[in-house]
Write a structure and sequence with these properties.
six-stranded antiparallel beta sheet, 5 helices
Amino acid sequence: MPDGLVPSRRSIDGFRRLRSMPFAGLFGAALLFLGLAVPAAAHGRLGAAEGRCRLFIGPDIMNFTGYLPDASKNEFCEDIPSTGHMIIALDAEQDELREMAIDFRIVKDVGGEEKENADLDAVTVAYRPPRIYPNGTINFEHVFPEAGFFVGIVTATGPHGERWVSRFPFSVGESFFRTLPYYILMALGVIGLFAIYLKHRPTTPIKTTRPEPAE
């Protein structure tokens, strides 16, 4: 511990309680802590809310529905389970979005906006130019020939200078590999807490009985 820093009484008591917890408690604490540590919004502005898949753009919301018509009738919300023909439908909940010009772009995930903007055309795999959708519904189709990691970018531009950008990373045919680091992190955390338990677990001395001396 650095010089001048003294642990508080609360910190000491908390560590003592951690040392005295049984393994089941440590395991549960590890899962709870790591579950909170892993970002819930791993897909940026896109995610499930109130039983629906929603894209948050500025102060407004668009309902998101994805389909793979050639592979399955099931809908997807975030990661696309396999390659091939994809259809995305976006439905605006607020009338405000029906008066704004909206464009939709899919780019390769190259590690952030700065790298994307260095050569946007080179990393763009699909693009729908700005357009006003009075009915609030946007249908977007694209064929992904290969698996990989991508970023969807929805931009809404209003008549009074408003400009809202919503970004959401997603994978195609790579769902397992996107979540794998989180599972590794959880496993390492559980192993670490188990090691603490083994090091600090209370030990009960073995009682031995001595034979009674013969009379």
